[in-house]
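User: Can you model how NDP sits in this protein?
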Amino acid sequence: MTAIPTVTLNNGVEIPQLGFGVFQVPDAETATAVTTALDAGYRAIDTAAVYGNEAGVGKALAASGIAREELFVTTKLWNADQGYDATLRAFDAGLDALGLTHVDLYLIHWPTPARDLYRESWKAIERLVADGRVRAAGVSNFQPAHLRRLLDGASIVPAVNQIELHPGLQQAELRALHAELGIATEAWSPLAQGAVLGDEAIVALAERHGRTPAQIVLRWHLQLGNVVIPKSVTPHRVRENLDVFDFTLSDAEMTDLAALDRGLRTGPHPDSLN
Ligand code: NDP
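Assistant: Here's the modeled complex, given as structure tokens:
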């Protein structure tokens, strides 16, 4: 089985560089999808309270018989649950649905800047870390201004910022800031939900390497140092997306892919989602 490399976070915790996302997978189908992923060799699962499928994830984890310390489970605090007390309550509910006693990574899902509650929410997450119920604390969809505001008064620097990132939206500014602050970049919609898989340059590289376009895109992420969490409910794609550790894109090929950056968003803009 493929050994998945890890990225060491700023608190020493190791996160598998390639994990499995379950956005838009109905709860009743989630256990099957996660079981397929675990059988294929994935060990990191990315869910969220708002996906409504933490229970399905938990069911598959429990049935797998895989030791808890070999698994890496991420879930996220939903927008409506921001604020100090509400965060603690929402975390308990998520843990309960997952059937776990701790999560490996807990993220504030969106900054929702108009509510301006993310600093209070972060205080609650810092307490969950101190209590040993969260191994690493992070954020998602934070723009540079949100990160700076969060850091002002925070005692923990986020370990991760999970952002929309793929060849159509390469996020140079955020990636540079993350490098400066010691925050790992995690790419959501790493395949742009399929929207970049027909790009001419990607198709050409796929033909050259005898790979699929999705494998080229995932390889590009890995070589940039991104953590990636592709989603698929199609068993052969689940396996295909993991089969990306035995080839390399050249510097010239990486440069070809850099040219595909075009401000393509598949999801909302973090400044305006409230
Ligand atoms: P992805 O970029 O992972 O794309 C998923 C889509 O691509 C599905 O339609 C899937 O189809 C298809 N696909 C997957 N693998 C292949 C392949 N090898 N060849 C062709 N098509 C393929 O999009 P997501 O939006 O799901 O993002 C991944 C994860 O990121 C989510 O599941 C979630 O965990 C996280 N996320 C986080 C967000 C946040 O705000 N923090 C926002 C959005 C996502 P099929 O399933 O039918 O096989």
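A couple of observations from the model: The pocket of NDP is lined by residues 21-23, 46, 109, 140-141, 162, 188-194, 197, 212, 214, 229-234, 237, 240-241, 267 (CB under 6 Å). The two ends are 42 Å apart (CA to CA).
User: Helpful, thanks.
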